[in-house]
Amino acid sequence: MSSPRLKLEDLVVAYGQSTIIRGINLEVPENELVCLMGRNGVGKTTTLKTIVGLLRPESGLITMDGRQLDRLPTSERARSGIAYVPQGRDIFPGLTVWENLQTSIIVKGKAARAQVDRVFELFPALKGMLKRKGGVLSGGEQQQLAIGRALLLDPKLLILDEPTEGIQPSIIDQIEDTLLALKAEKRMSILLVEQYVEFALAVSDRFCIMERGSIVKAGEISQLDEKTVADHLTV
Ligand SMILES: Nc1ncnc2c1ncn2[C@@H]1O[C@H](COP(=O)(O)OP(=O)(O)OP(=O)(O)O)[C@@H](O)[C@H]1O
Ligand SMILES: [Mg+2]
């Protein structure tokens, strides 16, 4: 068997004295979409930040395609094929849409330029607003820009932190279509953090549920039943 695209083993992460992630194990197989779920404050974003290198684990192992990641700087992880769309977007508000996209082209060069048409196919609305400043876009448009910018990197692993949070329904539908289209292409793995259960059900292959820094349940998305949702997800 080939190694999974991403593997977390016994990962422990703390902020100062308080341990937030308490020894989690998680795998994202090649070309699959895994949804990390859980209520507010359980440690989902902390997990993602540790994968991309913004936080250093206390202990545990992070590997991508069998290669150990946890000593590499964030930039090196990006170069090895990880693209990250943080919670709350994080586009450059003072740069135009086109300039925001350029930031990926600068990192990735020609290879990113080759992805531009594909990104406009997935998010046609972006094409009509290239000269507008990122900061004047709606939340949904900013989310499309943030995902589009990540896709220009043509990542092996796309990481999305609550892409539907505070976004109008029509754009949530477009993001859902985009994730389904990316899955159909079978060229990247996706780790999605999401609390919107219907959205997770529509796009995921597998789920993991976190509670206070531990993974309490995981399986194929078809196994995510109403009781599990009521017990661990809804407020
Ligand atoms: N910079 C920080 N310093 C100290 N504690 C933090 C810091 N960031 C987050 N925490 C704490 O770590 C815990 C996990 O936070 P995290 O942001 O990972 O949760 P989350 O599952 O992403 O929540 P949400 O669904 O609200 O985004 C919370 O108790 C939070 O208060
Ligand atoms: Mg979060």
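^ adenosine-5'-triphosphate complex. Residues 169-185 form the longest helix (17 residues). Residues 35 and 90 are 21 Å apart (CA to CA).
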